[in-house]
Every structure is written in C-alpha cells, then in structure tokens.
Specification:
536 residues, 3-stranded parallel beta sheet, 20 helices, 7% strand, elongated
C-alpha cells in the first residue's frame, strides 16, 4: 500500500515543500469541531490571537475579525454561542476561522453536507465571493444540485476513483458529447453528470478517463488577482525557476506566529471560559459533589470518633476515594475526545505548540477539580465528626487532591487513546482489579505471598493507606466509647486490624505522585501518537 510518505506533492507540476504549503493553505474538515461554549466573536478573536503575528496590534486584529464576520454574513451573530448556531452558520464560522490569515488556497471537505438547500447555497455563495477575491477554493461536493453547480468555475468529476472530466464547467457538456455522452436539450447538467459518473448513461467511461489527462491548474498560484491587477502570489514566490521551493532560513519563517508564552495565555483563557460556562462539566459537577458530601455526611453522622463504629468509618474513607476518583475521571473520558479533535486540527495547522496546549489544559482543570473535592470533603469531614485537627485535615486534603490528579491524568490518558464507548469501559476495567489490592477488601497479611507484590502497583493502596494514616496515625488519642465495651477504642488495635501498624504516609504520597507522573507520561505519549496518525 502506498503511504503519504511515498508520494509527491506538486503545485502545477512543480515540487513543493509540504510544510511550507500547509502554512499557505488551509483544510476545513466536513466535521469541523468548534468550542461550543464560545461566542462567534470570541471564537474568531481567540483564533486571531493564535494565528496572527504578535506584531499585529489588538485594534488591527479586531478589525480583521469584524471584516471576516461581515464577509461571511455573521455580523448579526457576534454574541451567539456556537452551540446555538444553525448548521449553515457553523459552516461559515469554520471557514472564517481559517480565513483570518487570508490563505491563497482553501480546501473544504463537503461544506454542504448536512445542510438544507438554502443554507448550502449561502455557504457556497460565500465561497464563490472568496474565490473572486483572488483565492483558490477547492471543494468536495457530493450530488450537487443544479443551483449549487452553477457557482463553480472548474470541476473535477470522479467515477469509481478515476477522473472522467477536469476543466471549466461551461465546457463539460461539449466535452462529454465528444466522448459519446450527449446531454438532452433543457436537461439538468448536474443530474446528467451524476448519471454519467454512476454509469446510468450508456457509454464507455474509459474514453472519458483517457481524455481527462490533466487536473485543474491552480492558476492563482502563478498569478494572484487583487483589485483587478495581476501580481505574484505568495506561493508562486516560494517556487524558484527550477520549480523547487525557494530556500528560506529559520529567520525568514517561524513555525508559529506567536511565542509559546502567548499561546499558553490564550489557550488558558479559552479553556477557563469554556469550563466556566459548561453546566455539566463545571456547575453541575460541583453541585453534585456538594450534595453527595451532605448525603454521605448524614449517613455516617458522628462515626469518626466512636470506638463502636470504626468499621463504618473505614468504609466511609474508602467510599470517598471511590467517589472522588470515578466522579472526576469519567467526565473527562466522555468529553475530552471531542476537545481533542479541536486540538488535532489546530496543532496540525500550526496554531500553537504541543506543550502550551498540554499545560494550559492541565492548569485549567485544576480549579474545578479542587473545588469539587473540597465540596465533598468539608461536609463529610465535619458531619462524620472526624478529628478537628489542622494537621490531620491538611494531610487528608493532600491525599484527596492527589487522588483528583490521578483521576485527571488517568481520564486524559484513556480518553485520548480510546473512543468514548471503549474508554468508558476501560476506566472501571483498569481500576477495579487495582481496588482489590487496596487493602480494604482483603488485608495484606491475608493475601497469598505470590500476590503480595501486586499491592505495590495499585495506586488505590497508596490512596487508601495515606487517608487511613491521616485519620488514625500520628499519635491519635483513644476514641470515645458510648457502650459498655468498645474493642477498637484503642487506635493501635485499629492499625493492627488493617495491617497498617507502621506509618507509611510519606511513602504513600510518593507512590501517588509516581502514578500521577506515569499517567501524565501515558497521556503525552497517546496524544503524540494520535497526532502522528493524522500526519501519515
């Protein structure tokens, strides 16, 4: 099988550098993912901050954004969120995002798919205006109507993977007639082309394939048109007289238009805006965490310092761990795959670097993560009458925050590597076997010797052990007893019961940090692998 690396990219029969061509062109996917919680104006402003040089002033960027909005007829939707736009408006916005840098060549994959006839005509009409302004606009259109077909200057007709016509739209009927395919008078040209391409019209397609020896020439690459006068376009200047790409130095062309710090700031701002407006990911999540904290706090009311209810208190500690881990990892697994599509498109179009995106993503998740964890921790801790000791509170909060980070990076790693349907299965499939070796269901001294090493590779062991030591170690006094006799009133007996006589809190923290680093590395590797799949 021939891969992309084995082929050649030519512009009008001349060799070109793929990386440089990508900088002077844009590719708009059929399913163009956009941040749904941003407004139209915010989407273009943030795109301008990332795609336009830092030398361009804020006033000039705003003027460019407003010009693009006017050209595409979106100036009446400035403050409308993307998720409230119609299909045609979303298509035009996706075009506007790439139009900010004024690329001389634009590729669009089925820009009319999923649109009604009116919206489709509006989109193609705007594309026609862009072509008249001196750009090459190349579209893939399936089964165009006669009205849509009239917008195009040149067409490239494919049948069974082979070109059967390449040239001006006005010559297609005569050209097909010369090959034995005659279009009836007053017949729809679009329907006629579809019938020929699908083999419904009698004739020999091999004749058409032989006649279509040359594809469309992107004439605008040789000569640009601006205000009715001819001038050399940017891409034609990149080609020297031998048809090779003109030599450039690293000083002439930078990979990204802005610095990594600027990229990080813009991406972080965008992430904070999207997270703050998302009802499910942020607001609903925090409310649910708080309500669960209240519910569990009332269920386990006053068990924390009662020597007769030690088993209930240990169950409470374990439940908190399970809730914090799965409630913070599952939403990421579900929602991140969609966001990752936006990253792949923007990263491959040289909007920003890899690391600015990764660290802006991680940093933007931290505030919501911390608020959610504290919303659960505070009501549970005080309603269940745990020790009112600043040191123990800080130690326990530290364990729960680290648990949140384990959930965050585990969700990112699995959400990046797998589709949502498979990822939602992989989360418990990976986590549940590790839970068995946490020390809660079966104590370490009860495990077979051959299975004992497995406890050291379970991050749930370190989390449970760390939270247990935060509550019961560090010289805690004996518990209260409101019955005749409480065997577990003595704290050393509780530690002996759970086979945790030795205080390993520091080692537990280091173990959790080790898992955080491991999941982060897996996330970076998975993201890099996905990027490479798109560039093959």
């Amino acid at each position: 099988m021939t891969t992309f690396d084995d082929g050649e990219v030519l512009i009008n029969g001349k060799y070109c550098n793929v990386e440089e061509f990508r900088k002077k062109s844009c590719y708009i996917l059929q399913d163009f993912a956009l941040h749904k919680k941003l407004t139209v104006l915010e989407t273009l402003k943030i795109a301008a901050d990332l795609k336009l040089s830092s030398k361009v002033s804020g006033v000039d960027k705003t003027e460019i954004v407003l010009d693009v909005l006017r050209v595409l007829g979106l100036d009446a939707n400035l403050e409308t969120q993307v998720d409230r736009l119609s299909g045609g408006e979303c298509k035009r916005l996706s075009i506007g995002v790439e139009l900010l840098t004024n690329p001389p060549v634009m590729f669009l994959d089925e820009p009319t798919s999923g649109l009604d006839s009116v919206s489709a005509c509006q989109v193609v009409s705007h594309l026609k205006n862009l072509a008249r302004a001196g750009r090459n606009v190349v579209c893939v259109i399936h089964q165009p109507s006669s009205r849509l077909l009239e917008f195009f200057d040149d067409i490239y007709v494919i049948s069974h993977g082979q070109c059967i016509y390449s040239g001006p739209l006005s010559d297609v009927v005569e050209d097909l007639k010369g090959a034995g395919y005659e279009c009836p008078q007053f017949y729809n040209r679009a329907d006629f082309l579809l019938e020929v391409a699908s083999g419904e019209r009698p004739g020999d397609l091999s004749v058409l394939i032989e006649r279509a020896t040359k594809g469309i020439q992107f004439s605008c690459l040789e000569k640009g048109v601006k205000n009715g006068k001819e001038e050399h376009s940017e891409l034609s200047k990149m080609l020297n007289g031998n048809g090779k790409l003109a030599t450039t130095t690293s000083r002439d062309i930078n990979k990204y238009p802005t610095s990594q710090w600027q990229q990080f700031r813009v991406l972080l701002k965008r992430s904070f805006i999207c997270i703050s407006r998302d009802m499910i990911v942020t607001q609903f999540k925090i409310i649910v965490h708080f309500l669960v904290g209240l519910l569990i706090g009332f269920i386990y009311y006053n068990v924390g310092n009662d020597g007769a209810k030690v088993s209930a208190n240990i169950s409470l500690l374990f439940f908190i761990i399970m809730f914090l881990y799965f409630s913070n990892s599952i939403p990421i697994v579900l929602f991140y795959p969609y966001e990752s599509k936006i990253f792949y498109r923007e990263y491959l179009n040289n909007w920003y670097g890899f690391l600015p995106y990764v660290y802006s993503k991680i940093l933007s998740e931290i505030p919501c993560l911390m608020i959610s964890i504290l919303s659960t921790f505070i009501p549970i801790y005080y309603l269940s009458s745990q020790p009112v000791d600043t040191q123990r509170i800080l130690l326990l909060v530290n364990i729960y925050l680290l648990t949140g980070f384990v959930a965050l990076f585990a969700g990112l790693a699995i959400g990046t590597q797998f589709d949502p349907q498979l990822a939602i299965f992989m989360m418990p499939a990976i986590g549940l076997p590790l839970i068995v070796f946490s020390g809660y269901f079966i104590h370490y001294n009860e495990l077979p010797v051959v299975l004992l090493p497995l406890t050291w590779i379970s991050f749930f062991r370190y989390i449970f052990e760390g939270s247990f030591h935060a509550i019961y170690s560090f010289n805690r006094k004996n518990l209260d007893c409101h019955q005749i006799f409480c065997y577990f009133r003595s704290v050393p007996k509780i530690l002996d019961l759970m086979d945790m006589k030795e205080n390993t809190y520091t080692m537990d923290v280091l173990g959790i940090i080790g898992w955080i680093v491991l999941f982060k590395i897996l996330f970076l590797i998975a993201l890099k692998m996905k990027v490479r799949q798109f560039t093959r």
